[in-house]
Amino acid sequence: MKYPRTVNRYCPNCRKHTKHIVSVYKKGKERAMNHGRRRVERKKKGYGSFPKEIFHKNAKINKRTLPVLECSECKKKHYAKSYRVKKFEIQEV
């Protein structure tokens, strides 16, 4: 799917239509001391196999791609509608 680099969208912060710069959301680095990571590390310690079963019957082949819109006036970011596509490409128009 081809998506334009700049779009004219409504900004909830400015409360009007402005130009927005589009980027794709990326997951940040997981913290080593969050509760889920500590729980898995505690379970993995000692004798035995991996604590959670590895799910093999994956039905979906595409990840959801989430466009992030940044307002050119106030520099606030908000999300657009997400798409489940194989290829998401941001292009200059």
Can you walk through the features of this model?
This protein is 11% helix and 35% strand. The chain is mostly beta strands. The protein has a domain at 1-28 and 60-93: Nuclear Transport Factor 2, Chain: A, CATH 3.10.450.80. The strands form three sheets. It has a four-stranded antiparallel β-sheet with strand order 2-3-5-6, with no helix packed on it. Strand 5 and strand 6 form a beta hairpin. The longest helix is centred in the middle third of the chain and has 10 residues, at 35-44.
Please give a handful of descriptors for the protein shown:
Nuclear Transport Factor 2, Chain: A; mainly beta; two-stranded parallel sheet; 93 residues; four-stranded antiparallel β-sheet; 1 helix
Number of strands: 8
Q: Please, how many helices? A: 1
Q: Which strand-content bin applies to the residues?
A: 35-45%
Give the termini distance in whole angstroms.
14 Å
CATH architecture identity of the domain at 1-28 and 60-93: Roll
SSE order in H/E notation?
EEEHEEEEE
| CATH fold assignment of the domain at 1-28 and 60-93 | Nuclear Transport Factor 2, Chain: A
Approximate shape: elongated
What summary fits the major beta sheet?
4 strands, antiparallel
What proportion of the residues is helical, as a percent range?
A: 10-25%
Q: Name the strands of the widest sheet in spatial order.
A: 2-3-5-6
Rounded radius of gyration (Å): 20 Å
- Which stretches are low in confidence, meaning pLDDT under 50 for 5 or more residues running? none
Just give the CATH class of the domain at 1-28 and 60-93.
Alpha Beta
The whole-number mean of residue pLDDT values reads 92
